[in-house]
Design a protein that fits this description.
heterodimer; A: 145 residues; de novo design (two linked rop proteins); two-stranded antiparallel sheet; 3% strand; B: 251 residues; Glutaredoxin; 10 helices
């Protein structure tokens, strides 16, 4: 399996994980309560919303976007497309920064760690490493070509 | 002759098609498909699974000795007990999203009364300030307006928002229309500390470990309730109560 295929598989897993957290936030999976676990503390904190939308919903959109780009990049006719590699590095790099910010909030502001959020941060970190490796594998464009 | 020409053409098209989807790509698509189907299936299963595990209210324990605050008629068909923490977002969600409908459809019609029992959780550093503020409002007959305002402005006085919750809560108390001299004296003296602690002790004695926790007759349910869930639990408890009364009358 190529790096781009692995990126697509991991992005799909990330989409499913974010969908789980979204359904949990909406009260469709599990119960929304305080005192029952660290994920509940994190998910009911004031930091769980961004621009009026739950962070988990942003997560679904983010992973879905990476999945679409990685699926396109995995097609054989785009195997040497450097722009797709660059897009993946940009997207996953942003994800690493954002996940780092969320992990900081969990550790130092909310004082609780949700294992699902740690799982998501780990997926984003692996996605970023794979994207950088894929970018390095791409042939550099010849100047003047 | 024409037939002979058509066959090689078809063969070439088939060869091009086969070249487009290599075995590696086919395997990749199958893997993506399997993950998607298994993932969506797991989410559907988890969504459909009953999530509110109800516990039995221990009726062998003595009746509540701490009183909390009652909203609604004491002759309502059912009294629902709510153990809640003012700083808990799930309690805030219940107070701001569900409770207005509960008031309109169940409390005002005399079907239900809600008894609010304080259960300040140790993980919320500012919650005790809010519980004391609510009790000091009760001192002036305004517990429920203060209860609603505290939950509405939860983001402005909670642990993440401020290190001086009393200051923010005073502003809320002023907005509710409290006599501020009386309120300030009540807060400074921590006048109702013992009552709040007594309510929390009731929760601990009954193994309540999360907020909000609701008691519908003999059923204890933890976690946020939508209006539909709340009404269904109320109807079930009233039906169980009526059945128990009928059975007792037969004896």
């Amino acid at each position: 399996m190529t790096k781009r295929m692995t990126l697509a598989v991991l992005a799909l897993l990330g989409t499913l994980l974010a969908a789980y957290l979204t359904l949990h936030d909406m009260g469709i999976i599990g119960t929304l309560a305080c005192g029952s676990g660290d994920c509940e503390i994190v998910q009911t904190s004031r930091w769980s919303m961004l621009f009026g939308v739950h962070v988990a919903v942003w997560g679904v959109a983010y992973y879905a976007l990476i999945f679409v780009v990685a699926m396109a990049a995995a097609q054989e006719q785009f195997a040497a497309d450097r722009r797709l590699s660059l897009a993946l590095v940009g997207l996953t790099g942003w994800g690493v920064i954002f996940s780092g910010w969320l992990t900081y909030l969990e550790l130092f502001r909310i004082h609780a760690i949700c294992r699902w959020c740690v799982g998501s941060a780990s997926i984003v970190a692996v996605l970023f490493v794979l994207s950088v490796l894929d970018f390095r594998d791409q042939p550099r464009p010849v100047i003047g070509e | 002759m024409a037939k002979k020409q058509a066959n090689p053409g078809r063969k070439r098209a088939g060869a091009v098609k086969a070249a487009k989807t290599s075995p590696a790509m086919r395997g990749f698509y199958i893997l993506i498909g399997v993950i998607a189907v298994v993932g969506i299936g797991a989410l559907s299963y988890l969504s459909a699974r009953p999530k509110q595990a109800a516990a039995e209210w221990d009726s062998t324990l003595p009746k509540l000795t701490a009183m909390g605050h009652l909203e609604g008629s004491d002759s309502a068909k059912l009294e629902v007990i709510e153990f809640a923490d003012f700083e808990c977002p799930a309690c805030g969600q219940f107070a701001t999203l569900t409770e207005p409908d509960v008031r309109t459809h169940l409390i005002d019609s005399g079907v239900v009364a809600i008894r609010f029992m304080d259960f300040p959780l140790p993980m919320h550093a500012n919650t005790w300030y809010a519980h004391r503020a609510a009790w000091c409002a009760a001192d002036q007959g305004k517990f429920w307006p203060m209860h609603d305002a505290i939950y509405n402005y939860q983001d402005s006085w909670n642990t993440e928002a401020t290190n001086d919750p009393n200051k923010v809560l005073s502003g809320i108390a002023k907005g509710v229309g409290l006599n501020m001299d009386q309120y300030a004296a009540c807060i400074a003296a921590k006048k109702y500390q013992a009552q709040i602690q007594a309510n929390a002790t009731e929760a601990q004695n009954r193994q309540v470990d999360q907020t909000p926790t609701f008691v519908f007759g003999s059923k204890v349910i933890g976690g946020y309730e939508t209006f539909d869930q709340f009404r269904a639990n109320v109807e079930e408890a009233i039906a169980a109560k009526a059945a128990a009364a009928k059975a007792a009358a037969k004896k």
